[in-house]
Each structure stands twice: as structure tokens, then as C-alpha cells.
Amino acid sequence: MKQITVISGKGGTGKTTLVGSLAAIAENKVIADCDVDAPDLHLLVHPEIIKREEFRGAKVAVMDKTLCTECGTCEETCRFNAIASIEGSGYAVNPTRCEGCGACVFTCPGEAVTLKERVSGYAFISKTNYGPMVHAQLNIAEEASGKLVTVVRNNAQQVAEKEGCELILIDGSPGIGCPVIASLTGVDLALIVTEPTMSGLHDLERIMDVTRHFGVGSAVCINKYDINEDNSAKITEFCRQRGIAVVGNIPYDPVVTEAMVAGKPVVEFSSGVVSKAINDIWAGINQYE
Amino acid sequence: MERTMQQNGERMIIAIASGKGGTGKTTVAVNLALSLSNVQLMDCDVEEPNAHLFLDPVIEEITPACTQVPRVNYDLCDYCGKCAAACEYNALVVVPQKEVMVFPELCHGCGLCSLVCPQDAISEEPREIGVIKTGKSSDGNIDLVYGVLNIGEVMATPLIDQVKATIDPEKTVIIDASPGTACPVIAAVQGSDYCILVTEPTPFGLYDLKLAVDVLRVLKIPFGMVINRAGIGDRKVYEYCEKEKIQILLEIPHDTRIARYYSKGVPFVKTMPEWKEHFAGIIDSIYLQTTRLDKNNT
Question: Where do the structural domains in chain B lie, given as residue ranges?
């Protein structure tokens, strides 16, 4: 079984547009949306949820005000500034700052603080017209997005084994941090989507450093390559120096947004230049491997 | 005409966030900073900081950012295992009579292991997670601070907190956040007086915008909207803003000139100076909105 993660470093370069279309082109695969805090792939492939499971990520400190003597030890202990005294109402935990470490629970002399599990999000197993899909939604203002990505990846593996799928197609999140790393570890290929802007080039270099750091093979495609062809040439040269293949250039075309508004993968909405480029990328990846 | 945020004698901290990536947070942050005076611009997208690419800054200082990780004194350790049992992040594993394995990338630096150790065998040592760069834009008008997370590092929040520790109370502070709605975004926007949400009028833009709005409502931070690439997509973002009574502070049209300047790393207010007035006008709108809120709250 092969796993391909589409990532970008910079946000908004077209990861989900590409994954939506690859989901329509590739055969016998599981689609995995690993952008768990701002997922969008469902807007193109319209999953019907079959199974929904609670995700318990980080714990949270809970204060029992009837036991609190307002000694202030918890506030001194907390390294995350998550506990403060509020005038007139004693000490309170700010759950959006609490990392659930339990240090306050340990130091509180009155046993007024306890750690509670919290539901930090939901993981879904769904079916779509393009095959099975696994995805998730982190709850509002929650952390542990990396752990939830790992849950989605485990679900993908299980579904793929059960259904006999040969491919897991993963939509990653922007950035280079915790959820991105969780979506990259152990995959066969990172397909990096970039754009010919100074930011795109800068962020491409950093995400390539990350894939190299974790020993994941990469290939690059340049989206909207024609909005600045000088920069596209720079990106191509940069990839050549790094020994990384550029597997395709996608031209700028308003049809991409039109397809998104229609709620369809662009390859199913139009048979124009963008669809051709994406088909070529898919062919290129299969050849490259 | 340049404006500052000194109305009411107070300077504001304004965060810029979006939900969806690539909607134009950095464009708004940089162009807004260039349209005001006495500004500190803070790039808190420590995974992929970009604001410096548009400002050609002179970097004056680079300081390492660290978190604390446990260090075991084997002369004192009796392998009782209390540290590993206490750690909520599984960052310590005790191999009896042999070693205490520390996994720094899992450690949140809470200090609990050293608190629970009955032998006082655990002290802490700094571990570098990234650097903080401080400087000025090439024209000298903007103080720039940004964090750069080390490659392969997962702990973005402590770096963001350390970037924000350099906030200059004498200046209007503009904070550029990372995309998404999870912990790095919360760390970046928390404590701000106002948040500008930047979106694009598309289904992806709208879906992620709603998530970002929910986050700001939980954090109780007042906010307004900048719609970038106005003219593409559909009208649903506008309908949503009307229904939720969210103020639209500015619309930036879908314009190939602006896109080209962006691609070259040129802030478009520099070549289309009439836009400085539009950006500075955001501040007036924010001021009106927040004073109205204050009145309603008292």
C-alpha cells in the first residue's frame, strides 16, 4: 500500500483543489483529510458519515472553588499562564491556555484542582462517490491537532486494509509544525504544491527541509505557474539543485474557483487546461515512482 | 496622511487571522503596518513567517528561543518511575536500574517531573526550538519581530509566546498569525484588543472563516473582516457577515496588478499609494466599533 501526502508549507497554494481532483482520478484509494483544524476537502467530495468517534486529546485542569483557599500556589506552578485569580471570584482555569500537564493538581495543597479528560474533536469514517474517506474536526479552540491527525491516519490504514485499497491519498495542512509532521511520517511521497511568489518559494524551501529531515521523498508542482514565470523558473531551478522532480505546472484559471463554488473537483467540472495539467501530474507521479 | 492608534490615549494590539491559509493575512498585516506610524509588526506564523520578505528588514538581533526539558542526575535517581507516571505527554520512560529516557520533542516544559521527583534528581535545561529575529524595515519605520521555528520542531506555541513577550506598549502592535484555528493561532491572537479576519469569498474561505469566528467568540476578542480577492467566487461570505452582523472593514479587489506585486514581494501600498488611506481607515472603523462595544458593555 502506498501513501501520498499533499502539503505546501504556505497556505492557500491549492492543496485541497489538487487532492479533490486526484481523488476523482486515482483508483482504489482511501481519501484522508489531515487538515483537522480547517478541513475543506469535504466541500468537494461530499462525504456521507458512516462512523463518528469522539477524540479525547489533551486533558484540562478543573478548579473546585469550594475547596480552593486562594493560596495562589497553582498560579505560581503553571508555566502556561492558564490559572489566574479573577477579582471577586477566586482562581479560575483558562481552558484555552491549559495544556493539561497536571502540575497544578500536584502542587495544590487543598486538592482543589483535578485533571479531566475533554472531548477535543471528532474523527469520521465516511463514504464518497470517489471511495472511502477518513477525516476529522478539531473542536473550537482545542489543541492536540497532531494527535488527531494520527487518529485519522490510523483510521485510513484500517479502512485501506479492510477494503483492499492500494493507496492512501492525504490532504495535509499548511505550515511545518506538529500536524504537518504527523501527516508526513512514514509516507511514500510528499507532493508539495507551491506557487510562484516570494512567499511560496521561501515556504517551499522550509517544507523541503522538513521532508528531508524526516527522510520522506518529495515531488513538487507549481500552481498558478503563469502568474509570475520568472519565479516559476527560479522554483524549477531550485528543485533541480535539490534533486527534486517538478511533476507539473498548473496554469491560473478562474475555473478552479468556479468548480469550488459548484462543489466539484475541477477535473469533473471542466476538461480545460487545469484538468489536463492535473491529469499529467498524476501520470507523472506514477511514472516517477 | 498617516494615523496612529493613539486615539483615546491607548495603543492597540491588533491580530490578523484567517482560518484558511493563503487568503492574504500577511498582505493585510504588511500593508496596514506601512499605512500607519509608530508600528511594531510581529510575525507569529513561526512555521512559515513571510512578513520579512516584503519589508527587506535590517535584522539587529537574533536570539534563541528555548523550552525547558528535564535532565536527570543519575547520582540521585533511584528509578522509582514517579516522573514517567506523572508526565501527561509520555516524555519520560524509566528503564529500571539503567536509564531515564527523555523524549524532548514530546516535552511541554511544564516542570511536573522535577516537582514530583522524591530524590530531587531532575533539574531542567534549555532546549532550542527556534530563534527570534528583531529588526527594522529598510525604511526604518516599522519595528519587526518574527519567530522562526526549527525544522522538525513541533512546539510552536512557546516560540509564539516568546515573540509576543517583546510587545512594545508604546507602539501599535500588528500580529500576523498562522493559518488554521488550532493552538498556534490561539497563542498568536490571545491577549489582542482586536482581530482582523482575512477571507476570500469562496466556499473554502467561508467554511474556515466560520471556524475562526467561533474561536474569536470563545476568546471574547472583537473582530471585523477584510475580504480579499473580492469579485471571485460567490456572495455567501457577504451573506454570512450580514447575518452574523460582522463588520466588513475593507475589500481588496481581485486585481492581477496586486497579485503580481505580491508575487514579487512588493507591498502594494508602495506602488498604489492611494491604498494607504484605505488601510489607515481600517483603524478608524476598529476604533468606532470597539468604543461602541465598550459603551454597550457599561
Answer: 7-55+137-297, 66-128
